[in-house]
Design goal:
Blueprint (H helix, E strand, L loop, with lengths): L7 E6 L2 H13 L3 E6 H5 L5 H8 L3 E6 L3 H13 L8 E5 L2 H8 L5 E5 L4 H14 L12 H5 L1
Parallel strand pairs: 1-2, 1-3, 3-4, 4-5
């Protein structure tokens, strides 16, 4: 797929309402959102690897719902398969503390608890993109809409 000038952000969520909110906000922020639903991927109705290869996202905003350990293990399995290994990821969740205990410390993934402020999501997303998928890049976030101004 040909790249456009807007960074592509994959929004992977279990809630259509939250996915729509994040997608609309991502567009307003200067990103090109593509949306997928966790149950469709996890249950095999859609292939996540194909979705990510097709859209080539610059970053992913992924919601981790309960059971946290099962859903985090799914993210780890996907990352281990290589399809999103180098893709910066921002996790959203309803219980940040519980998810942090399962995930542990990593600079490659930002974890935000809900309810979250949309500005917080896009600051974290810009920072994750700037750092890169392995957390090694510089940490000075610039959002696409900031570049346009």
């Amino acid at each position: 797929m040909a790249r456009t000038s807007e960074p592509v952000v994959a929004i992977i969520n279990a809630s259509e309402d939250v996915a729509r909110l994040l997608s609309d906000a991502a567009t307003d922020e200067g990103y090109r959102p593509v949306v997928g639903f966790v149950p469709d991927f996890r249950d095999g109705e859609k292939d996540l690897a194909s979705f990510l290869r097709e859209h080539e996202p610059t970053a992913i905003v992924w919601d981790i719902a309960i059971p946290y350990d099962v859903n985090w293990r799914y993210v780890q399995d996907v990352r281990a398969g290589g399809v999103m290994r180098d893709c910066p990821t921002v996790l959203t969740t309803t219980n940040k503390r519980a998810l942090e205990q399962i995930v542990g410390l990593t600079e490659a993934i930002e974890i935000l608890g809900r309810p979250f402020d949309l500005d917080e999501v896009f600051r974290a997303l810009a920072d994750a993109i700037r750092r890169g998928g392995d957390g090694s890049g510089p940490s000075s976030p610039e959002r696409p809409r900031d570049r346009a101004e």
